[in-house]
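Regression test case RT-17, inverse folding.

Input:
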């Protein structure tokens, strides 16, 4: 097949949609298919082009057999609303325009989390007369309304109508978990046009390893029990709970516990400034890191925190960082309800804590810090579970089978 994949994000950006798109498309190319990814210049989350890239009209590169076409967009940081929407809309316009100059695909795939990328897929599939597979990783615009990033009710209603029209245009809607599947069914997507392909990991890359002691030392974490968070530090993450927990632990004299926050996002600077104001020396912000370094950072975490704000919509979310932590054999503290909680409890790889509840977080941290044997057991259980259920090689093959079905190939 000739597969055209539209994604706003792609490596060297290190967020979840970039990683999932890379993991799938590289494997499809290895299987002998002609895969093109249509994306923007890497700039997430700061809104500044990464070193070695310029925001030019169009540029091409080849990444492990995948043709990557990068188109011009309006660059904007991952905060605020107006400029971010301008960034999203500019990608939709550029991607749709430049897709017309590419070889005609057999199937078009477009991925959220922002649905203007989905609409670029709708327009491209119509212009190129190719079936559309729509990948839904986030229920947008409901998710931005849930965190207060968009409050205009008329605009939200308009975006919701566009959302449902986008679903109707797809030959197949692929989502990442059963929670999303239930929500999409409620939005009128028929069961026969829905499929679930969960997030997964490269089991060779995210594998148990000895802690990177040099890295731990360089961050001032030597001799500490490290609670690590990796990923977007945005409005949905609810990481103010970390500052409150660190402050309470400091008052209790528990300087042996430290928090490591790896990543960037809309509220990172605000949280960092507040941590300095409060004198929270045991909260370390490592900033955005090359995705290739993430296994090293996870290796120095005694437990991995996966957390979102206490919002009902987020009980449908299945964060990919669960699988990365489990693959590394790290125990998980999970501040996300719904399907994510079900998976962690079924796997026996961590403990659930009520989101945004610093008391519950402190109790769980101290309980695990006092029980290294339990931490090892949780980590081993997580590794075994993801090896059985979330191997990216198998999931990419399953996804490819869906594309072949849409294309009509037996």
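Golden output:
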């Amino acid at each position: 097949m000739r597969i055209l994949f539209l994604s706003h994000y792609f490596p060297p950006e290190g967020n979840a949609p970039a990683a999932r798109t890379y993991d799938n498309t590289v494997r499809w190319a290895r299987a002998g298919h002609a895969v093109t990814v249509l994306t923007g210049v890497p700039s997430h989350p700061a809104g500044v082009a990464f070193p070695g890239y310029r925001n030019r009209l169009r540029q091409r590169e080849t990444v492990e057999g995948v043709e990557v076409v990068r188109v011009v967009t309006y660059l904007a940081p991952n905060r605020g609303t107006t400029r971010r929407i301008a960034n999203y809309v500019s990608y939709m316009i550029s991607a749709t325009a430049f897709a017309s100059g590419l070889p005609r695909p057999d199937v078009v795939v477009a991925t959220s989390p922002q649905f203007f990328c989905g609409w670029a897929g709708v327009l491209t599939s119509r212009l190129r007369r190719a079936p559309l597979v729509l990948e839904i990783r986030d229920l947008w615009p409901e998710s931005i309304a849930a965190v207060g990033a968009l409050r205009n009710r008329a605009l939200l209603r308009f975006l919701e109508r566009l959302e449902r029209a986008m679903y109707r245009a797809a030959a197949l809607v692929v989502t990442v978990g059963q929670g999303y599947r239930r929500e999409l069914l409620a939005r009128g997507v028929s069961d026969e046009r829905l499929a679930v392909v969960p997030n997964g990991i490269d089991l060779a890359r995210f594998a148990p390893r000895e802690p990177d002691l040099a890295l731990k030392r360089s961050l001032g974490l030597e001799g500490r029990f490290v609670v690590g968070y990796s990923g977007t530090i945005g409005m949905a993450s609810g990481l103010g709970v970390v500052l409150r927990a660190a402050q309470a632990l400091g008052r209790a004299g528990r300087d042996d516990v430290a928090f490591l926050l790896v990543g960037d996002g809309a509220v990172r600077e605000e949280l960092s400034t507040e941590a300095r104001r409060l004198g929270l020396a045991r909260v370390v912000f490592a900033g955005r890191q090359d995705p290739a370094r993430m296994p090293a950072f996870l290796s120095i975490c005694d437990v991995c925190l996966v957390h979102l704000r206490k919002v009902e919509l987020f009980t449908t979310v299945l964060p990919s960082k669960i699988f990365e932590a489990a693959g590394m054999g790290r125990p998980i503290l999970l501040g996300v309800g719904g399907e994510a909680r079900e998976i962690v409890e079924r796997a026996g790889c961590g403990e659930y804590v009520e989101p945004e509840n610093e008391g519950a977080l402190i109790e769980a941290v101290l309980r695990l810090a006092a029980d290294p044997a339990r931490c090892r057991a949780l980590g081993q259980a997580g590794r075994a579970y993801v090896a059985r259920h979330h191997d990216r090689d198998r999931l990419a093959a399953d996804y490819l089978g869906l594309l072949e079905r849409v294309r009509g190939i037996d």
